[in-house]
């Protein structure tokens, strides 16, 4: 769908020239000849981009007033201000009120088209980013009652109110990006862009272009992640995979708060909150020479550590209920009835963490099994593990009865403790033991209690 450009100018010749120029470039247009017509067009429907003359029939600053009116409706709509009475003060005033660009009359047609092209690209990028964020924020929350999850939720509340840089460490699929998005959503930057740059997915020759952007020979600019995230948040995911020479340039940006685009000569200043994440231990990467220690200390102002799902067993039943409800709603089917205490699920190692669990629930939803037995069979086949009882029995055939019993009790009670997040009372109630008896049993089996 072609972008729609609103053209506002009281000079008929200039209005027609711009209109023909924009239509020839493949855009749709609407036009207004005075302040009231422009106001009516804006209130009827916001354009994707507006080109406003500063001085119309109402006063010397008609365009600035219309600019402010547009920004109160949607601050993301780019506005290009044009003026035949241009001066530095007017340019600064328009940019201060949120103008995307300022251009003097008589204007160069190619330059105006370049401004329009960049404005459309900027608007579409922000629109797509908001749609993506909206879907993600409305679809998934941080779910769990393990100490690790509760601590992270509390950390997000505190960190979001600051401008501190954050480093998120956790295994693949554990929810690092979700945590970063939650921090952004709760911060004062939440109305601006959240940009993700994945260090593991970039071509080795494109790191600088993706980060800093490029000034091309024809005068156009390709914006990098830093400028796209201006006034917002930039997440550099898997920062451990970024080469050392690019790491040094990131460090310089953090120190100077400015950079040069590729092939550019002028400094670009940006206001970006940086969040980084990695599934690798950066301290070990520093020791083997793969990561700069000085950069690590710059990005690690506040650290969040996500434990693997296999260490947060008490989160699993809650996640199953949550994903079952959400995914059933997405597929418009009856809510799935999955046994949250299914031994296959609780005993699985979850190398793919929360993402793997969510994928399992989605697979069940797609197959739409009619009974709990069929659901259980899908779980068993998908996780490719034997029945918990069969597994314990098989492991116990080659040892004496007493040792086999102790092995079973130790594995069984360890899983139950994790499931109830170390709560002795709840665990004792579930397994049918007195609290004091469970304490003695745990001590006798050498199982360390945790709070």
CATH topology of the largest domain: Rossmann fold
**Cα shape:** elongated
Strand-residue proportion: 5-15%
Can you list the strand order of the major beta sheet? 2-1-3-4-5
**Unreliable segments (pLDDT under 50, ≥5 consecutive)?**
385-394
Termini distance? 57 Å
- Report Rg: 29 Å
Annotation field: number of helices: 20
Specify the biggest β-sheet. Answer: 5 strands, parallel
Give the mean pLDDT. 85
The fourth-level CATH homologous superfamily of the largest domain is P-loop containing nucleotide triphosphate hydrolases
- Please identify the top-level CATH class of the largest domain: Alpha Beta
Provide structural commentary.
51% of the residues lie in helices and 13% in strands. It has helices at residues 12-24, 35-44, 62-73, 88-96, 109-139, 147-160, 176-186, 207-212, 225-228, 244-256, 282-287, 293-299, 315-331, 343-347, 353-367, 372-383, 388-396, 401-419, 424-431, 435-445, and strands at residues 4-8, 28-32, 49-53, 79-83, 101-104, 166-169, 194-198, 214-215, 221-222, 233-237, 258-260, 267-269, 273-278, 302-305. The protein is elongated.
Characteristic key phrases:
single chain, 451 residues, alpha/beta, Rossmann fold, Helicase, Ruva Protein, domain 3, 5-stranded parallel β-sheet, 20 helices, 14 strands
Gist of the model:
The protein is of the alpha/beta class and 451 residues long. It contains 20 helices and 14 strands.
